[in-house]
Batch of 2 targets.
Target 1
Amino acid sequence: MQEAGAANGSCNLDAVIIGAGMAGLCALHQVRKLNMSVKVLEGGSDLGGTWFWNRYPGCRCDIDSVEYSYSFDNELQQEWSWSERYAAQPEILAYMNWVAKKLNLRSDMEFNTWIKSTHFDEGSETWAVTTDTGEVITCRYLIMATGCLSAPKKIDIKGTDNFAGETYYTYKWPHEGVDFTGKRVAIVGAGSSAIQAIPLIAKEASELKVFMRTANYSVPLQNCPTDKEYEADYKKRYSEVRKMQRQTFGGFVNVGGVPRMPRTDSALDATPEEREAEFEYRWESGGLCYYTSYADLAVNINANNHLSDFIRKKIRNKIDDPRLRDLLTPTEFPALTKRLCADTGYYETYNLDHVDIVNLKETPIEEITEMGILVGGEVMEFDCIVFATGFDAVTGALNNMDIRGRGGVALKDTWADGPSTYLGLMTTGFPNLFNVAGPGSTASLTHAIPCDEHQVELVIACIERVEAANAKSIEPIQAAEDLWTQHVNDVANMTLFPRAERANSWYLGANVPGKACKPLLYLGGFDQYVKKIDEVIDNDFEGFALSQMGN
Ligand code: NAP
């Protein structure tokens, strides 16, 4: 192991972790156990990742808080207590700060440090990480914990700099908050972020216009304060719950607050009455639990049609105005094939007189002007514009850095036609570079924390393998990477997820103009992914190659 320390202006470490979100904190804790010198470099001014940046009104988790915590340390999950069934952003950030304090993580973190490039040196088999201040840090192992939904999608609307009023972005909300009282507000986008923000912005604004292109399926969160007795009982079941999480497609198990394994039967084998009762039960239970309902909802269009129709009917029942009812009814893709949204009072907000939709399918935004937004040849004037336009998901944060592997080859070029990885973790030609929750893993298709924890376990296993063999590095064999990438594509084609391409699904990269439209995530589910990794490790790291010292 190398010693940490400054030498000739550069710092030599065993490992560098980029990103201080959920994955980065977990990775730091686990790498430290290897007795290695390690540092986390983070662009933000503090830790938290997603939960540091996304502070818009209404921002909260869509996974039950009792499930939304680290499992790697039983003391942590037993001690922390959540105030609501679905924690809001400030509480999740407080949790992360509490974890960092308990584990003394801050001493190995550097903030306000954006990474410009990471270049692999074939002679020394080390990575040189260059920061925005020009500092170069060298390390053997480079762990990308940069997040799947962290790099914003570049706003592809003409004239965004022209607006003289206030402009906000949900992905980097002002820390001091925003007072919309009495203001005329436009929000561009109607995805998960907008759906959470709209009800709260509408409470303050004098006028709120939602510039919407595609209607989404949103189900009620059914949020409520945490019942202390329930929480105490739940904590007794953690070892069982954590095992169950790894045996499910989505990495979460609660239905109405109760851990339950996913159904394994088909929606098509149920009677109409049974199906209706099942969907109604899930609606009342709240949140994303449709993902653990009938086994064929995301693979069989006839099964899916029953669910999509059910949610459409529920949405329509909530909206008074026939025009808004039609606009908000999702028709362009099957439910679940874009991440299901979950809300508190979203559709009801459209029954308020001062809230309206501008249908961008009929009148696209022509440009942003000094006074507002030009649509249909007329400027609609606003005091504030909020962009909730989404992310360059999964690959965006990685491609924003100049990552170069063997032979100076850029990762971005290697992935020009879509990402290629082995197990969603590594790419051939980029030794010792680990992408936690990278493309080809289940990443944010699933509950992020179990997925991050599991991937960090794999990173640690790989590092231990290198160290035990007294080797220099590990990387995938090209054939293994090709097979996995093909498998990721084949599995996607067996599901209904590709049908959301025309609804600009970020799962496919279809929301970013010019981005290769390929499945970014492994749609086989977390359970299948965990099984595959276990097999690979049991088969002596099948598909990976080690580079020996002196080679
Ligand atoms: P998103 O789901 O990608 O939604 C972006 C919205 O902006 C869409 O309505 C999109 O319309 C619209 N848009 C993009 N470019 C546009 C343009 N040029 N003109 C007009 N409209 C435009 O992004 P998000 O809402 O930030 O959510 C992304 C993901 O983050 C979610 O799927 C979820 O995984 C996660 N998230 C989770 C939560 C939670 O509940 N915990 C909250 C927020 C986010 P089109 O659909 O027509 O392209």
Note: The pocket of NAP is lined by residues 61-62, 149, 156-157, 188-194, 196, 211, 213-214, 339, 342, 360, 365, 388-391, 444, 503-504, 506, 511 (CB under 6 Å).
Target 2
Amino acid sequence: MRNKTTRNARAETGENRFLRACSRKPVDRTPIWLMRQAGRYLPGYRKIRKDHNLLTICKSPRLAAAITLLPVEELGVDAAIIFADIMLPLQPMGISFTIQNQVGPVVSKPLSTFSDVDSLMKIDPVRDLPHVLEAIHLVKAKLPEEIPLIGFCGAPFTLASYVIEGKPSRDLVRTRTIMYDKPEVWKGLMSRLTQAMGSYLKAQVHAGAQAIQIFDSWIGCLSPTDYREYVEPYSRQLFATIEEEGVPSIHFGTGTGLLLEEMKRAGGDIIGLDWRISIGNAWSRLGDGVGIQGNLDPAALLTSHHFIRSKTKQILSDVNGRPGHIFNLGHGVLPNTPVENVSQLVDLVHELSFPPSL
Ligand code: CP3
């Protein structure tokens, strides 16, 4: 394992940078983890992936647990995220899909009518998603005490968009049309997804997840008015469920420059930003009552060490020592990212944020 000295020192003081940042407490160094940190850019992942497809890995707790631990062991990130996919809980609801290489999730029968919605099944995570819960148990048994485990799910809107579009789409026209034109389909689908994700997240917390990230990856295609009317009540309910469980939550989306106030109202201790907006700007709009996660452009990791360093410095200077910052990319690590650049970024964030500027 890398960073052994720092890690042991932290263990002795019982300090946990990530969870402290979630509560906007001062930290010894800025915590960093990366969306898709356990993905295809890691040779260890590619090796396992050669023999198994993604869904098989997700359903094999030992493989999923081993992959979850790779970036902690190899890169020294400050949090692990359970290896799974936002699509997994849709299967026991009765939605069948495959994950196609270079494309993403493809749903066999995209949903469009009320009877499609009405035939969706209620999930019991312990019965229907035991592999995810078992993977959480296995990870927790191996993870150093000071490295927390993040559980996650897709937000109702982003999941609804996959279920309705059937395949990745740039502008989600079918989704927006159903949202406007078929209120009974939209409300039925969003309510069922919210209920299912609530029980799935509770089960992840009971299994040992210490924080939750909700991925509303494609929410940026809505206007603030539409967000308030068609999405906010459902996302708000989901965040209320996490709050009842007593763990911190991160609310992430891309293209959300115009939606930040709405996302904050829906919930989340931390708002996750993509790279299209500066942290300083976002934080001055949202106020100090919320933390911020982000927001290096993943494409920066395809460039030079010099450029990565200057972009990282810029983000930390934007944060300006405010408590409650979690360093991350603005979206997932890209598949062709050199591992050494990711490793350099983790070290850089720790180096440049020390001593704390508070
Ligand atoms: O650190 C991690 O990688 C954790 C595991 C994780 C996966 N998917 C595994 C995965 C997480 C957190 C996700 C979340 C996810 N899945 C999201 C939200 C995050 C985001 O990127 O916005 C979304 C939208 C999905 C749906 C999904 N699954 C897509 C769009 C794709 C294809 C795109 C891609 O990256 O290839 C997947 C497949 C997928 N899920 C892969 C992995 C590692 C890559 C495919 C593979 O190895 O076959």
Note: Strands lie at 80-81, 97-100, 104-107, 149-154, 211-216, 249-253, 270-272, 291-296, 325-329.
